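User: quick one, sequence for these tokens?
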């Protein structure tokens, strides 16, 4: 069994690789650097370069991720975020994030209408 490249399960890593292929992103297109994180995480993030800066050369998109205390998890999250941005750029209103935002917006409108009609 191969060791995972990121600190996630093999299933999550395989899903990320499928998503990167669907977006047309290869590892050779990525420029990765590590900088020191700030904020929560205590001494660990203050002393080590756990923050990941990921740049997609063909599009020029840059992602900075310092969500977790470990560098390997941040590498995973940065790649996942890059895929989200590329999907949003290519799919527009059909991207998963745009559909979720539209669903929440409709839900809030529905609740607002219910509240205003109940107040009358």
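Assistant:
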């Amino acid at each position: 069994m191969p060791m995972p490249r990121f600190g996630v399960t093999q299933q999550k890593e395989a899903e990320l690789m499928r998503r990167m292929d669907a977006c047309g992103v290869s590892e050779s297109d990525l420029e990765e650097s590590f900088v020191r994180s700030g904020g929560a995480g205590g001494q660990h993030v203050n002393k080590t370069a756990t923050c990941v800066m990921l740049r997609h050369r063909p599009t020029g998109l840059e992602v900075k991720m310092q969500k977790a205390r470990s560098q390997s998890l941040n590498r995973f999250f940065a790649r996942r975020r890059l895929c989200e941005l590329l999907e949003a750029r290519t799919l527009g209103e059909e991207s998963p994030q745009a559909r979720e935002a539209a669903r929440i917006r409709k839900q809030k409108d529905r609740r607002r209408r219910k509240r205003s009609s109940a107040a009358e």
